[in-house]
Specification:
mainly alpha, 2 domains, binds zinc ion
Length: about 180
């Protein structure tokens, strides 16, 4: 059993010794000691804050990673079963026009099918979010063509015709998240 009373007595003794030492100091040293103590307290608060924040971020990213992993697994399983289903049933797979849309950029609505998202995904690192009224490519510096601006405001995404850099307008970003 821990003897709290004894520990408290001990602490009090140390405290009294500290006070005696402190009062014996010249006034400048006293001020310095107080400032140092305040500094240490602030520093430890800051350290605790950032440590907690770091831990929170870590937990957040781990959870997000797990979520994305599970999502990926389930999407993969779904696609696999879909594949098996069409294979077994002998039904022709429904043809999606999205690949055509992607090629000619002719889509009217910003409706994104699963395939379109897949095409865009590997390029996401290259994509920069821009205002729809931005006019110059940040990669190669060439001016947007009318076609690109049109696509950007209609679909929310466009690719530089000169260097292939992807762009996303903020409008779509807001809608998606
Ligand atoms: Zn460019």
């Amino acid at each position: 059993m821990v003897d709290w009373r004894q520990i408290a007595d001990q602490a009090l003794l140390y405290w009294q010794e500290f006070i005696t030492w402190f009062l014996a100091l010249p006034i400048y040293s006293q001020v310095f000691v107080i400032m140092a103590a305040v500094g240490v307290i602030i520093l430890s608060v800051v350290i605790v804050y950032y440590t907690l924040k770091g831990v929170a971020y870590l937990v957040y990213y781990i959870l997000k990673g797990v979520y994305l992993l599970l999502k990926g697994i389930f999407t993969g399983l779904y696609k696999l079963f879909e594949e098996i289903y069409y294979e077994v049933s002998g039904k022709p797979k429904p043809i999606k026009e999205s690949s055509d849309k992607e090629c000619y950029g002719q889509s009217e609505a910003p409706q994104q099918s699963y395939e379109e998202q897949e095409i865009i995904k590997p390029m996401q690192k290259e994509i920069q979010i821009v205002q729809p009224n931005a006019v110059f490519c940040s990669e190669c510096g060439s001016q947007y063509t009318e076609r690109m601006i049109e696509q950007l405001s209609e679909n929310g995404t466009a690719y530089c015709v000169f260097c292939g850099k992807g762009y996303k307008s903020i409008k779509v970003e807001v809608e998606q998240y």
